[in-house]
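Re: the request from the purification team.
They wanted to know what the chain is likely to look like in 3D before they choose a buffer screen. I agreed to run a prediction and write the result into the notebook, where they can find it.
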Amino acid sequence: MSLSVGIVGLPNVGKSTLFNALAARRLAETAPHPFTTIEPHEAVVAVPDPYLAKLSELVKPKETVPATVSFIDIAGLIKGAAQGEGLGNRFLAKIREVDAIVHVVRAFEDPNVPHVHPKIDPKEDLEIVKLELELGGIKDKPVIYAINVSENEISKTPKANLAAPAVVISAKLEEELIDLTPEERKQYLAQLGVTETGLEKLITEAYWLLNLITFYTIKGGKEVHAWSLKQGKTVLDAAGEVHTDFAKNFIKAEAIKVEELLAAGGWKPAKELGKVRLEGRDYLVQNGDVIEFKIGAN
């Protein structure tokens, strides 16, 4: 499922820093000046999934493959972008290509990172970008706001009336965590008085924003795979995501909710308990289904 989320906002609000944290590697240059990112970079990011981890513990496969979301770092827009200011037409064209938007809004003070306006005003910045997107013909795209705060404000709740989902995140903190081990990360966050950051929540929110659900396949005990699928799609569509031949030669599918499979302790005991369902090609896949496709010969 090749859907993508574009990271947008004014210059110097932390877009590339956030992208670096998402990619877990510094692909995009970060520097305190406008238009740091001229060519958009793309990062394919694993979707946080506790069920996948539990399935992997149960099956103990050689490989575990998560569902993913693609994030694209797009250079900063400025006032007048829709009229071509600051390479605006070029960047707006990139935004039109994505399926949803993460709009990064600056809410941190840093004298070393100049703002494009005289003062930090998240509401005004948000309205400028929103207007430029509308003037550029980008009106109805799904959006989530990433309120970028300083490290000591990550426990705050975003202000209401944003007319879209919002996540508080410290992009600078997230980037600093890249090079730490899990234990070091845990200790660092404890010093800040938090147990988790907003990055995983942002990824998950972006996933739901794309109207995606997750189903799982277990390949002979060798691979546990989480797959993305648009909500409302059939098991035949799911078969096509796994392999085109699966859809072409589809006969039926066996399915079980991941919670029931885990509770039963495996596919065989779940089947003995009558928990595995037989589904035809018109079955609408549900979030969390574990599916085994039955296919005929070519």
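For the purification team: The first strand starts at residue 4 and ends at 8.
Please add any questions underneath this entry.
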